[in-house]
Design a protein that fits this description.
four-stranded antiparallel beta sheet; 180 residues; alpha+beta; 2 domains
């Protein structure tokens, strides 16, 4: 694993906030330094520009009820339209770049920020992702279409996906990929 360039810095923090951070680090079985690096990384890589890129907070029960109003085909169509009409401007706003690595990294930060479980494994060039969300099958259909269509457009390869009530799994081969 490559080492990261680091620097030492000193900060003054509100005592109550520092105590909360220490408790959180202990609860997560990590050092305070690891937790702070994670918080700063999340902020720098996603939260600082998420609102400008059109992201907003919505309570989970409201999103579930909204998605329940859609048919499966409606949910899929919204995912396709989101991929075709929105993703390029969102990604350029978040990352000032439009490629599959930045897209997948943005998905990772967004998923973490949303409180979903996320896993990424690589085996012989095959990238496998799993997202568990608890938002219902229509959210799965929406996300599956959105992610698959976006990646397929970027790398000109087929994305395999599996959808269940609360889970999206997708995979694609990154070996010998020439991006658009």
């Amino acid at each position: 694993m490559p080492t990261k360039n680091t620097e030492t810095a000193s900060f003054r923090l509100d005592s109550k906030n520092l105590e909360k951070l220490k408790k959180e680090a202990k609860h997560n079985e990590q050092s305070l330094n690891q937790l702070l690096n994670q918080i700063i990384g999340d902020y720098v890589n996603f939260r600082s520009v998420a609102k400008s890129a059109g992201f907003m907070s919505i309570p989970k029960p409201v999103m579930i009820r909204m998605m329940e109003k859609f048919s499966e085909d409606d949910a899929k169509q919204v995912g396709i339209e989101h991929s075709e009409k929105d993703v390029k401007s969102i990604l350029c706003m978040l990352r000032n770049n439009y490629d599959v690595d930045d897209f997948l990294d943005t998905i990772k930060y967004w998923v973490k920020d949303s409180g979903f479980s996320f896993r990424h494994d690589v085996e012989n060039g095959l990238h496998k992702y799993v997202i568990h969300h608890d938002l219902g099958k229509n959210w799965s259909w929406y996300m599956s279409e959105f992610i698959s269509k976006t990646i397929e457009k970027m790398i000109e390869r087929k994305v395999e996906s599996v959808v269940t009530g609360n889970l999206i799994a997708f995979s694609f081969d990154r070996s010998k990929v020439v991006e658009k």
